[in-house]
Amino acid sequence: MFEGPLQDAIDEFSRLPGVGPKSAQRIAFHLLQAEPEDLERLTAALSRLQKGVRYCRICHNVSSEEVCRICADSTRDATIVCVVEESKDIQVIERTGEYDGRYHVLGGALDPLNGIGPKELNVTALVQRIGGRVDDVVAADGTVADAPEIAEVIIATDPNTEGEATAAYLGRLLKEFPGLTVSRLASGIPMGGDLEFVDELTLSRAFEGRTAIR
């Protein structure tokens, strides 16, 4: 155990996800030896992170403006909405280059044991979007468009217990909308994976999502 501000910094870094005690110690000592201007830039960036980050009023993605760049992009297919748990999931999907629709960020997944129910997530906002009860969309060029009619909702929650429960709940909720297609992002055995290391939930989803090869 160190003393004073150094230990305080190590304790705070240790609270970050994915940062263990040894990593926290390395980060603290690195910053201790850093140039003052480097620390000032880091401090300024953290301050802007807390005060400058906003959430898109349409999809709840992290945004620097009232409407995020994806919702404001008129070239994207506004009739398809991909539902994800967190904003970071959008970046993963965008890197594939396979999806050109829009998104909706729930802000988490259903987890009753930890007090997270539908009211703690952006579920109501999703229903309002599908029902067309949202404000007009202001694009980046300043043009205004009516709320688009949504034809398909792709549920892309994580393939774990909480994500599956969330997908099942949304599926039941959205089936009340006539003409709306609700699909679940496929998941299963990863390429290069061995069956002996695949968990039961993943294997079950792989069987459900099997496709014919002849």
Short description:
This protein is α/β, with parallel strands linked by helices and 214 residues long. Helices cover 38% and strands 14% of the residues.
- Helices and strands: which structural class? alpha/beta
Radius of gyration: 21 Å
Series of secondary-structure elements, N-terminal to C-terminal? HHHEEEHEHEEEHEH
The third-level CATH topology of the largest domain is Dna Topoisomerase Vi A Subunit, Chain: A, domain 2
Biggest sheet statistics: 4 strands, parallel
Compute the separation of the termini in Å.
64 Å
Note the beta-strand portion. 5-15%
Strand segment count: 8
Form type: globular
Walkthrough of the structure:
This protein has 2 domains: 4-52, Orthogonal Bundle (Helicase, Ruva Protein, domain 3); 74-186 and 193-208, Dna Topoisomerase Vi A Subunit, Chain: A, domain 2 (3-Layer(aba) Sandwich). The mean pLDDT is 86. α1 (4-14) crosses α2. Strands 4-3-7-8 form a 4-stranded parallel β-sheet. It has helices at residues 4-14, 21-32, 36-52, 87-96, 123-130, 161-174, 200-208; strands at 54-55, 62-63, 77-84, 101-105, 137-138, 144-145, 152-155, 181-184. The radius of gyration is 21 Å and the shape is globular. With 214 residues, it is an alpha/beta fold. The chain has 7 helices and 8 strands.
